[in-house]
What does this fold into?
Amino acid sequence: MELHNDFRRMSVEEFDTTKLLAHASKQARDRGYHRFPIVDVDSHHYENESMPEILEYLDDPVLRQLATATARPNAKNARIMNTMVGYQDMGGRIPRYGLRSFEKTPAGQTQRDAALTKRWMDAVGVDVAVLFPTPMLALGVHPQVEVEIALSRAYNRWLCEKILAHEERLVSMLYLPFNDPDATYEFVKEFGDKKGVVGFLITSTRYRPVHANQYMKTYALLEEMGLPIAFHGSYHWHDQAQGMLNRFISVHALGFVWYNMIHLANWIINGLPERFPKLKVIWLESGLAWIPFMMQRFDNEYMMRTSEAPALKKLPSDYMREMYWATQPIEITDLGLLQETLRVINAETQLVYSSDYPHWDFDLPSTIYDLPFLSETAKRNILGGNAIRLFNLKLGAEKLAHVA
Amino acid sequence: MPEVFVEKVADFAEGDRRIVFHGGVEIGVFHWQGKFYAYENLCLHQGGPCCEGVIMNKVEDVLAPDRTWRGQRFSPDEAHFVCPWHGYEYDIKTGECVGNRKLRLKSFEVLRRGEELFVVTG
It folds into this structure.
């Protein structure tokens, strides 16, 4: 079968994010996003396209040789990097996956990842974005813990030096090599005060319980430094349970919630909110529909099995209402259910907008701004105000995004 | 009724499309299996340029008479255009959103005047 691909009648060499998102820019103008700040707490870049640069930051010369043996390594052929089975591009239906590597950026100026990121931020109306990698979201299931540590440290150093040090609109919560509790602690000490580091990230797809005693020193340090900890959902088709699912839609729909459900259960039932009452906890890329499920499920069982969670001084849902929840991928399929979900999580103070751009299921700010049951104040809090307070961002009155 | 020029018929190849603009509205015009179809280029999901994505035939499951699954194939009859933002698929002949056919893109009449094509935007 012949496949037609003439997106906006652009040749491959002409692919441009600003043109792709022209309708998003119109939304930004029509809705007056210039009147208030928008912060995106979960966006991505493709660090695999900068892999040769990142690998230069590997300290271990043997590992560096293993990783750079190919002529031009990227995440898929760097040999030391694990990859995931999956079809995020929907078999070519999402053209930017294939075309983005052809997109032109100004030579010799801004780092390419930063230039591309700011391009979509401007198109959408986002002032500040929290930036995360893409293939490295799978590092938590790398079979070699030492490689997870080495690669994530190289990435963190590269991100801090090449991007965060130079970009006022880009910040990040840095990757923690959670499979090694000591390295996790050392990462917080090493990177916690770097410019643009607004917290730390646990990629949730892994098999380490968050309540293990070895992590307490890290949580204490984060609490002391006033830096949030975030859990980012992902999938893992090699997981035995997910291996029973035969389509990527199923693996994605369940996988991105599954590991966060486990970490959230452990976090609450083991009383970590009581042990670290000032530590801010954020849940990323699991959508919102799972939250009322977890609240109801655990409140119901806690009332019967209170003795199994003796550290708790209130209902599990009460602790959840003190956490922060990123919006994407927001399930706008039943407005009544969504309204109730936002009500039970105290969305006006606890919900933070996230786009996940440029991934296939990204959400525009209009997914929040157009909700008919939110006040203007609530919309602005969710789109920016809550994140500004959460990360203690110093934004001036001037809108940083330059919508075309 | 306002009419907007699309293209000369001779220059509008089978399987091709055009995006025309009128009064702030974008309209995607498709030439498909000898006929012309026109829809608003505004995805019902988040407002993406749905008429500008790839055209791909419908994917179908192949079931045996005993209702066992035997694989998948592309439909020989039904083609979809796919919003490049998130993948919402639309039936090229009806403008229906194939995930929920209660949803349908706004459609426009396509007129042929001699060797030229127009969409009626009123």
Chain B touches chain A through 22 residues (CB under 8 Å). Chain B has no helices and nine strands. The domain at 3-120 of chain B is CATH 2.102.10.10 (Rieske Iron-sulfur Protein). Strands of chain B lie at 3-8, 17-22, 25-32, 35-40, 55-63, 69-82, 89-91, 107-113, 116-120.
